[in-house]
Amino acid sequence: MKLWIKYIIGIILGIAAYYILPVDSPVVSQFIEGASEFSIRFGRYTLVPMLLFGISYSFFKLRETKQLTKTIFWTFSGIISSTLALLCLGIISIIIIKIPRFQITGEKITEIPTIDIKNLIMQMFPYSSFDAINGGMFVLPVFVLAGFFGAGCASDKIASKPIISLIESATKLCYTVSNFFVEWISAGMIAITCYWFIQARGFFKSNIFVPLSLMLLVDLILFAVVICPVALKLFCRDPKPFNVLYASICPVIAAFFSADSNFSLQVNMHHGRGSLGIHEQTNNFVYPLFSVFGRGGTALVISICFVTILRSYSLLGFVFSDIIWLFVTSFGISFVLGAIPSGGTFLAIGVLCTIYGRGFEAGYLLLRTAAPILCSFAAAFDAVSAMYGSYLTAVKTKSFEHIELKHFV
Q: Residue 126: exposed, middle, or buried by beta-carbon count in 10 A (0-12, 13-18, 19+)?
């Protein structure tokens, strides 16, 4: 059975559990919350060792084959291009279509939302390198540490030959173990989906956010089904760009209901290698970078939400200078959310409102009820970007093999 079918079965069972179980009961609700958290922890359990060994081996192989610079170039070209495309799509959508205004609540902020950029930089080089692999929330310190290991091995191949053999074996072992966890995440999707519906109860009870969610859904379909395949056809001349879309089904499902970039990262990497045929060294290198920096979905969501908040507070028009400011600020914020794998979208909206000021600092509170939905859509956009962007890098660096559709995982 295909993996995406298992995940969909898990989602259907999760929806059924939401309507069958007495979720209004505190005991039942807490049990489902605990089961959901356990499932997400289970899905992220093998991520750090897989990245540590996989990225170390990738750095070594990419340096050995002199593909490191080219891979970095195309990876960040894909990240930046997808973020720009999503931002343009979001801003154009909200300018053309005016979402009904939200009801002003007059709620005051108790804490100013901020992103500590200095702390993010310091986390990349903690006092001890062992701290880089402790916790597993921020994968960039793991990437940096593994990069130094791999680059060091490449600088002295003879002395490091035993270490490289060990790292290569550990990479293959971690991938095998990761596949086991990815398979069983499908069972965890029951609890994750059920708890997602519990969190989104306020959203479903209110109709004021329906136009916003419909806009995000249309934009997601447009981006995944039209924009990305067309771009892949133009830049790669790929004869079957929709194969990437098919391979993205499972990652998008996992990303949407978990709203956790670290949780969906293993699923992305599993399909990148097993379905798209991306070579091991490229697969282990590109996907983590997209997970940290490829937050174009968040940029799209916060830009749409911010314009809607402004329109809710004021009847004044949204001038061209405001559009430029929103574009630049949203673009910048999307690159500093790597340490927040879950819930970063709602925080980003709060930061955007705070930076804008002018009495709109508390505007993000209007969207508190819709926060689970917003984070889910942002994660889904990011999963699509990662799948198409990583495949683009693999094609441009000639580090992939065509896999027939029937052999996709």
A: middle
DSSP state, residue 369:
T
> Per the structure block, which two tokens stand in for 95?
């300018």
Global confidence as pTM: 0.93
Q: Which residues pair with 342 in a beta bridge?
A: 260
Q: What gap in Å lies between CA 378 and CA 83, rounded to an integer?
A: 12
Amino acid at 78: G
Chain segment 64-90, per-residue pLDDT in tens: 888 999 999 999 999 999 999 999 999
User: 258 CB contacts (<8 Å, ≥6 apart)?
Assistant: 40, 43, 192, 264, 342, 379
Predicted confidence (pLDDT) per residue in 94-121, tens digit: 888 888 877 766 666 666 777 878 888 8
Those residues whose C-beta lies under 8 Å from the C-beta of residue 309, and which sit 6 or more positions away, are 102, 349, 353, 360, 363, 364, 366, 367
Q: What amino acid is encoded at 223 in this protein?
A: F
Place of tokens 């992103």: 115
